[in-house]
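quick q for whoever's on today - can somebody do inverse folding on this one?? i tried earlier but teh output was garbage lol. tokens:
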């Protein structure tokens, strides 16, 4: 279908629109271009003046060196364990919580919803000391469980709000018909509500995963064993006391982005549908 408004626009308007979009695209891609430029530079040219955008002979070996200089494969596995565990925990808790808040009316329900979203005002940095003392008392320091639980707690408010919005949109007649057929609450949730809320679930899970995947400060504070490090703190190994190996640091950072980037490409339709529908509801 042809956009009539677009056809009515003059050439100058179109050029201005495309020029603005091109400028925004360049600004968004500039950090990644700079990262790739530095990642391909040999160590001897890192501090050359004037700096070159791209080296005459790209040092592709930097992308191989990061796997041998540090146990990058182990760091990848640790990140998948932490991010996957946090995503699963936040989803398992957020789904029934969102269903209860959407379908049941009880005293303090609205206040509880405001309280949940109010917790987002507190950064994990503010709670760092309290979390450290609590995890230490529970003997969970220096374990993946600590990061899984804390990252799940950080993502839980968004998950609950997203699920509450979706489940509230389900017509009451569907639930009533299922109850008349003898279905229990769990069966109703699984068979009737989850398929409808699939885009919202995908959005909430993606948010939880990316948040845990990118987390740095909690991992740096709660983990001291090098074998338990995720990618964020593992890559930090390239920052030495006297030198920062920028070429290896940025090469490893680009590699660390790949799983999240591929995930967004594969799930972009579900994410857009989930965010749009969640915002409307």
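ok took a stab at it. sequence:
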């Amino acid at each position: 279908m042809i956009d009539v408004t677009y056809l009515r626009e003059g050439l100058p308007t179109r050029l201005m629109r495309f020029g603005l979009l091109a400028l925004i695209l360049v600004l968004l891609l500039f950090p990644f271009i700079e990262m790739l430029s530095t990642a391909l530079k040999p160590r001897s040219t890192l501090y050359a003046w004037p700096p070159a955008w791209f080296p005459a002979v790209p040092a592709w070996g930097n992308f191989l060196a990061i796997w041998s200089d540090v146990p990058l494969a182990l760091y990848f596995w640790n990140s998948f364990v932490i991010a996957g565990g946090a995503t699963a925990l936040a989803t398992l808790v957020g789904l029934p919580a969102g269903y209860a808040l959407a379908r049941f009316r009880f005293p303090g329900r609205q206040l509880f919803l405001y309280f949940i979203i109010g917790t987002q005002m507190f950064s994990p940095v503010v709670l760092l000391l309290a979390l450290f003392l609590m995890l230490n008392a529970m003997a969970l320091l220096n374990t993946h469980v600590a990061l899984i639980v804390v990252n799940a707690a950080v993502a839980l408010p968004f998950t609950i709000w997203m699920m509450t919005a979706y489940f509230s949109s389900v017509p009451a007649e569907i639930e009533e018909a299922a109850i008349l057929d003898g279905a229990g609450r769990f069966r109703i949730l699984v068979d009737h509500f989850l398929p409808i809320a699939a885009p919202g679930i995908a959005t909430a899970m993606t948010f939880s995963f990316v948040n845990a995947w990118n987390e740095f400060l909690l991992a740096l504070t709660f983990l001291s064993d090098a074998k338990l490090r995720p990618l964020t703190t593992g890559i930090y190994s390239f920052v030495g006391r006297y030198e920062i190996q920028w070429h290896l640091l940025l090469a490893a950072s680009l590699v660390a982005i790949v799983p999240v980037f591929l995930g967004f490409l594969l799930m972009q339709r579900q994410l857009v549908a989930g965010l749009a529908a969640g915002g409307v509801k």
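fwiw The first helix runs from residue 4 to 8. also The chain has a mean pLDDT of 84. so keep that in mind when u check it
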